[in-house]
């Protein structure tokens, strides 16, 4: 059994913790072991940095962001997004406001509005 800050957790089948030796310490959540975060070559900043945890949307744009934007740039967008919503007084219940924000997202992260 591996020992963690939350107590003792059983080792997964095969005794390995994502490539760790049997009995190694690994962070855990209520759902189980946390997967190792991978790096992504970010198209916005040009650096290879930590990938965001999951696609932010359940669509093609979400997959594109997940595959090509780093956590740092995503966090910058989230701060900028708040400023955009407040500046334009966007009501996100309005489909036109959501479309506008989507366009702003693509422009901020990828440098070009959608075609």
Task: Kindly describe this structure.
The protein is an alpha+beta fold. It has 2 domains: 1-36, no CATH class; 39-110, Orthogonal Bundle (YggX-like), CATH 1.10.3880. The chain has helices spanning 60-68, 71-87, 95-110, and strands at residues 2-4, 7-9, 28-29, 32-33, 39-41, 48-50. A hairpin with a 2-residue loop joins strand 1 and strand 2. Helix 2 (71-87) packs across helix 3 (95-110). The longest helix is centred in the last third of the chain and has 17 residues, at 71-87. Residues 2-30 have low confidence and may be disordered.
Please describe the topology of this protein.
Elements: E1 2-4, E2 7-9, E3 28-29, E4 32-33, E5 39-41, E6 48-50, H1 60-68, H2 71-87, H3 95-110
Antiparallel strand pairs: 1-2, 3-4, 5-6
Task: Provide the low-confidence segments as ranges.
Answer: 2-30
**What is the rounded Rg?**
19 Å
How many individual domains?
Answer: 2
Q: What is the structural class? A: alpha+beta
Strand order, main sheet: write it out: 1-2
Q: What is the chains' assembly state? A: single chain
Can you describe this structure in just a few lines?
With 115 residues, this protein is of the alpha+beta class.
List keywords for this structure.
single chain; 115 residues; alpha+beta; YggX-like; 2 domains; 3 helices
